[in-house]
């Protein structure tokens, strides 16, 4: 997918699509963002649809891929660029067929076995985490840089690192071979705003 590590942005778990459009535009205009994942936990399908309709054009106007979390069928129906699926988010092989030509990302926690399986099933990227403690989600798995080193030496399929990543702690992950750093709090909760969060992450990745 890329050469060099890039920023993979994930939305806050709850948002008002109309209000968030501007925040998103400012964040994407601040620097390099490879993709946005819409991750609205526990939202009704109609609300997810409204959010896709409001936010996907903001991404596409800036050449940023738009990925929907959790639901490959809805991602396909709404014309998203792809879907991110966890281990409990349905049939990965079926999603691969449905999302022919689109992006399929799969959560692999800290498991080499899950990552190999995801690769065999045609994932476009595998996601490892959590690398650091996070307030965004309760996590049951803890990943280390050895996993990124092993994967990036062995495999061509890109890997995403996630979980508590900030500008201050990301350098070892970049050096270990992460192709993407996925973040929520580091951007949306940045004390100087989301644009500053993107700039800080871009600078930290470049300096790693
Ligand atoms: C890039 C990326 N990596 C991991 C996850 C986590 O997915 P999952 O395990 O399905 O958990 P939820 O995000 O659905 O709570 C992700 N969303 N994105
Ligand atoms: C959505 C998600 N998945 C994780 C995993 O380990 O699979 S950690 C996580 C939360 C990421 O948010 P933040 O950047 O604020 O820590
Ligand atoms: Mg999920």
From TrEMBL:
One of the entry's Gene Ontology molecular-function terms is:
thiamine-phosphate diphosphorylase activity
Tell me the residue numbers annotated for binding 2-[(2R,5Z)-2-carboxy-4-methylthiazol-5(2H)-ylidene]ethyl phosphate.
134-136, 164
Per the record, the pathway is: Cofactor biosynthesis; thiamine diphosphate biosynthesis; thiamine phosphate from 4-amino-2-methyl-5-diphosphomethylpyrimidine and 4-methyl-5-(2-phosphoethyl)-thiazole: step 1/1
Signal peptide residues are: none
**What EC designation does it have?**
2.5.1.3
Q: Where do the coiled-coil regions begin and end? A: none
Chain residues that bind 4-amino-2-methyl-5-(diphosphooxymethyl)pyrimidine: 37-41, 69, 107, 137
Q: Which NCBIfam families match?
A: thiE (TIGR00693)
The protein depicted here goes by the name: Thiamine-phosphate synthase
Species the sequence originates in = Roseomonas nitratireducens
């Amino acid at each position: 997918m890329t050469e060099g590590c890039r920023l993979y942005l994930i939305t806050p778990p709850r948002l008002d699509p109309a209000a968030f459009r501007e925040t998103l535009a400012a964040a994407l205009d601040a620097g390099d963002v490879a993709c946005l994942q819409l991750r609205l936990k526990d939202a009704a399908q109609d609300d997810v649809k409204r959010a896709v309709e409001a936010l996907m054009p903001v991404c596409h106007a800036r050449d940023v891929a738009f990925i929907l979390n959790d639901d490959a069928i809805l991602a396909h129906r709404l014309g998203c660029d792809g879907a991110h699926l966890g281990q409990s988010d349905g049939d990965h092989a079926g999603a691969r067929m449905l999302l022919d030509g689109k992006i399929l990302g799969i959560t692999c926690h800290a498991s080499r076995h899950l990552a190999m399986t995801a690769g065999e099933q045609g994932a476009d990227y595998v996601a490892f985490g959590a690398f650091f403690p996070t307030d965004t989600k309760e996590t049951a798995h803890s990943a280390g840089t050895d996993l990124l080193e092993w994967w990036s030496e062995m495999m061509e399929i890109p890997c995403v690192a996630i979980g508590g990543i900030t500008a201050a702690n990301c350098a070892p992950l970049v050096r270990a071979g992460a192709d993407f750093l996925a973040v929520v709090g580091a951007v949306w909760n940045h004390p100087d705003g989301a644009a500053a969060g993107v700039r800080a992450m871009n600078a930290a990745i470049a300096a790693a």
